[in-house]
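Lecture 7 notes: from sequence to structure.
We start with the chain below.
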Amino acid sequence: MPAVHPQAFSASSVFNCAGVCRAAGIAAFIFLVYCLATMVQMALLGGPPATVEEAFRVLQQNKVLGLLRLDFPTVLVLPLYYLLFLGVFAALRNTDRTHAAIGTVLVFLGVTLVLAMPTALPLMALSDKYATATSEAARAHFLAAGEAVLATDIWHGTGAYIGGIFVELGAVWISVIMLRGCVFSKAIAYLGIVTHGLDLVHIVCVPFRPKVATFFMIIAGLGYPVWLWLVGRRLLQAGKAEHAG
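Predicted structure tokens for the same chain:
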């Protein structure tokens, strides 16, 4: 891999590039752990519940496992994308500041839209009310409310759908910028283009070809841990080089 050049960063930065890059590198490794844990969770527990009845059932059996299957950890970890891509922007700002900023803004907008859609906690509250309901009419009411909530989650909601497209489009955009700089290797850039590009295709296909979308999601999922490892390591190295410079 090419050496990290301290001159790739501006000494007159309006924020501490070294600190931002180091923090972003740490965020990448936290995200890496999350990705691997999610793979294990899906293999052992399964994916998100397909129906509100299933969601209520898993929450009543075990709230912690139910929240895991309803992607509650994503709500806690996804904000790290702000820090991760801020660090990538700091590393690329002297390569192509304008286009790096565009890609970063796309990611930020996408993450914000996705974070506006979580439904795990509302479903848990409805599940508790459903479990204590004393009439069929009340149960039907809570099931209907649960269906409405489930229809707007991060797997089905329009906001999350658009947000996911923005995140992956921004990540592909930034990966292309990586090709033109000296901070990230060509391998990292191409891996980012392929991984985030496949995930972008997965998201676009979800409403129309769910089986095809699942195939692309699996392939993209295999690339994420490697990409996060390489990007995290490079950001830590870049932060160290900037601090030394």
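Points to note: The longest helix spans residues 80-115. Residues 6-244 form one domain.
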